[in-house]
Inverse folding.
DNA sequence: TCCATAATATGACCATCAGTCATTATACGA
DNA sequence: TCGTATAATGACTGATGGTCATATTATGGA
C-alpha cells in the first residue's frame, strides 16, 4: 500500500515535469514563430510526443498559451516582491519597480511580442477556473503596487489625493500601453520624428510627474 | 467612345456601392457574433453573393476588417474636427473631444468590442499599402489633437512643459487603454469594489489633471 | 438584332489545423 | 507471469479561408 502511494507521488512529479517540458517547447516555438504559426503537430514533434498526448496535459492550444503567461507572471512577480521589500521610500520603490519592469520586458521581447499580439483575444475568452486563476495573479501584483503607493502616501513621496489602489491600476494600464504599443503608432511616431525610445522616456517622466506629491496648490 | 467612358464611371460607382454593401453586412455579422465566428460563406449568403465573389472586392477576410475600421475612423474624425473648429480654449476643445469620444465609444460598443478583441493581432499584420493608409488615418486625428494642445498652450489652458505632439500621443494611448480594458482587469476592479464607471471617471480626472497648466512650481 | 469579348459571378475544391477517439503500448502490483 | 490501469498514439473529422476553372451577364459594334 505504501508503495502505491509513493508511485503515485512520483507519477505526479513526472507529470509536472512533462508539463513543464511542453511549456518550454511551446515557448521556444511560439516566441520564435508566433502562436498562430505553430501547429500542435509541430509542437508535439518538438517534445517528441504524439499530438494526442499534448491534450492529456493541456485542454487545448489556448491553455498552453495561458500556462506560458502564468509562468512568466510568477517570474515578474518575484522581481516586484524584491523591490517592495527594500528599505526605501514608497516613491523609490515604485520607481525601481518601473525600472525593473522595463528591463524585464526588454529581456523577454519575444514573450511580450506574443502577448501583445495574441493576448487580447485569448484573455477575452477566459472563463471560470482559468479566468479566476488569471485574476488572482493580476491581483497579487496589483496589491503589491497598492501597498507601495500607500507607503509612498504615508511617507509623503506620493500624492495622496487619489485612491492608491486606483493609482496602481493607472500605472499598470499606462505601462502596458507603452509595452504593447501598436506598430501603427510606432510608425506614426517615427514619421513625426520621435524615436520610440525617446517617447517611452518622456511618457515615463509624464507618468512619474503625475503621481508625485506636488507643492500644495488650491 | 464617350459612351464607353460613361459606362466605366457607372461601373466604378456600382462597384463602390457593392463594396459598401458588403462592409455593411460584415459589420452587422461581425458586430453581433464576432469576427472569428462568422465565416466568409455566411457573409456571402448575407449579401446574396457567392463566396468567391467576395474576393473580387476584398483581398481577404482581414481586408474586410480593415475596411470597417477605416470607415469608422472617418466617422470619428468628423466629430473631432467639429470640436476642433469651435471657438473655445484649447483645454475646452480637448475636454469636449474626450467627451465626444467616449460617447462615440458608447454608441459603438460592438464595434469597439470587435476592435479590442481582434485589432491587436490584425494591426500587427499590416504591411505596405494597408499600413500606410492606416497610418495616414491615425495621423489625421493625431495632428488635430496636436493642434488643439498647441492652442491650449498658447492660451495658457494646457501645461506647456511637454511637447504637444507627445501629449497628443499620451492622451490617445491612455484613452485607448480604458476603452480596451481587459475583462480580467474589469474583474479585478470589481473584486476590489471599484465599478468600471467610477474607474473611468477617476482616470479621466487623473489625466485631465496631468495635462492642465499648474500654478508655477520649480 | 446578334455576336464576340470582356467583366463579373460562382461554388466545388484544396490545404491547413485544432481537437477527438478507437486502438495500442507501457507500467505496475499481485 | 498476468490482468488491469494508465499513458500514448496518429488516423480521422469538421470547419474554414482562400483559389480557380467554368459559367453567366453586360457591353458596344456590325
Amino acid at each position: 500500500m505504501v508503495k502505491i502511494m509513493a508511485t503515485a507521488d512520483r507519477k505526479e512529479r513526472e507529470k509536472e515535469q512533462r508539463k513543464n517540458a511542453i511549456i518550454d517547447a511551446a515557448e521556444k516555438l511560439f516566441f520564435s514563430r508566433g502562436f498562430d504559426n505553430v501547429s500542435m503537430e509541430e509542437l508535439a514533434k518538438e517534445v517528441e510526443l504524439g499530438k494526442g498526448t499534448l491534450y492529456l496535459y493541456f485542454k487545448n492550444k489556448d491553455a498552453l498559451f495561458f500556462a506560458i503567461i502564468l509562468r512568466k507572471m510568477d517570474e515578474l512577480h518575484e522581481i516586484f516582491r524584491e523591490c517592495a521589500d527594500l528599505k526605501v521610500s514608497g516613491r523609490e520603490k515604485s520607481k525601481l519597480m518601473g525600472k525593473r519592469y522595463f528591463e524585464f520586458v526588454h529581456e523577454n521581447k519575444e514573450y511580450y511580442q506574443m502577448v501583445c499580439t495574441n493576448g487580447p483575444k485569448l484573455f477575452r475568452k477566459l472563463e471560470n477556473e482559468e479566468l479566476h486563476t488569471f485574476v488572482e495573479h493580476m491581483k497579487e501584483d496589483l496589491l503589491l503596487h497598492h501597498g507601495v503607493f500607500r507607503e509612498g502616501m504615508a511617507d509623503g513621496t506620493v500624492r495622496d489625493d487619489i485612491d492608491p489602489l486606483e493609482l496602481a491600476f493607472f500605472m499598470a494600464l499606462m505601462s502596458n500601453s507603452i509595452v504593447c504599443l501598436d506598430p501603427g503608432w510606432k510608425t506614426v511616431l517615427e514619421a513625426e520624428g520621435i524615436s520610440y525610445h525617446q517617447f517611452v522616456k518622456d511618457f515615463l517622466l509624464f507618468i512619474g510627474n503625475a503621481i508625485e506629491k506636488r507643492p500644495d496648490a488650491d
Remarks:
- The first helix of chain B runs from residue 2 to 33.
- The CA atoms of residues 28 and 46 of chain B lie 10 Å apart.
